[in-house]
Amino acid sequence: MNRQNSSEEVYFILLGFSQYPRAQTTFFFLLLMSYVITLLGNSLILLLICSYSRLHTPMYFFLGNLSFLDMCYTTSSVPRILVNCLVTSPIISLGQCVAQMAMGLYLGVVECLLLAAMAYDRCVAICDPLRYSIRMGPRLCCLLAGSSWTAAFLLTVVPVLTMPWEFCGRHVINHFSCELLALLKLACSDLHFYKLLMLGTSALTLLAPCAFIVASYGRILVAVLRIRSTEGRAKAFSTCGSHLMVVALFYGTAISMYMMPQDKTIRDRDKIISMSYGVLTPMLNPLIYSLRNKDIKRTFKRLLGKKIDP
């Protein structure tokens, strides 16, 4: 196919698992179930946090932001993927593709920054508990959350929308959705500067927050080891365990996808990894936090009208 004229509408075919019909059917039902669980679980956490003043604390303020973010994150791509699973040759226009890619990148970076803000909150709560309510006041919490949403927009959406996209050859994306790496492999325009920019952005939004989280938990570990009572240590670790599980799952898959050397083609392994941080993590977040959090479980029982032991 010759290079596309800029005035022509460009379309792409999304392969997904279309070459494996049986696998695609199984994938459809698993993805649908994951999406429903994600929406129900995160909606429930938001309902609990908004409804009960007991949960109006900095920790649950950030958790509420994370739940809202996860619902937006999955909704930006999963419904379209589900529809594509039912179509023989799913197509998407360049405009829709870039919009989907920009939205996915934006929300993914917001999650990176928000998880770092949550690590800072836990660090202050354990290392400086007497001044926690003063240091983590409403203004700082809103500033950290707002900065995450704003900085992510400037770091992802603006560069993506200014890229001079030109494509030649087969317009076939070997992926479920318009993933950045998959689209870059098809571009024949000079994107060298933008590739370097995106690499720098990946380091800034993945490695830097990850390093900050590791440093924060290093301080937390030192503070916890100074606690003499076993019960106090267990309580401190329980408030951080859920966050650490989410961080390990999200950052582990995202870094392996964006910071490791890339092949010239997208493999099935890359598709599965992208589903891990794009679908699996948002689904597991409410389960991890609710199963390991006593306040969430007590509030849920109160919502159901059950008697709560003192």
From TrEMBL:
Superkingdom of origin: Eukaryota
Keywords: Cell membrane, G-protein coupled receptor, Membrane, Olfaction, Receptor, Sensory transduction, Transducer, Transmembrane, Transmembrane helix
Residue stretches spanning the membrane: 27-48, 60-78, 98-120, 140-161, 193-215, 236-260, 272-291
GO-annotated cellular components: plasma membrane
Membrane topology type: Multi-pass membrane protein
UniProt function note: Putative odorant or sperm cell receptor.
Family designation: Belongs to the G-protein coupled receptor 1 family.
Name used for this protein in its record: Olfactory receptor
Lineage summary: Eukaryota, Metazoa, Chordata, Craniata, Vertebrata
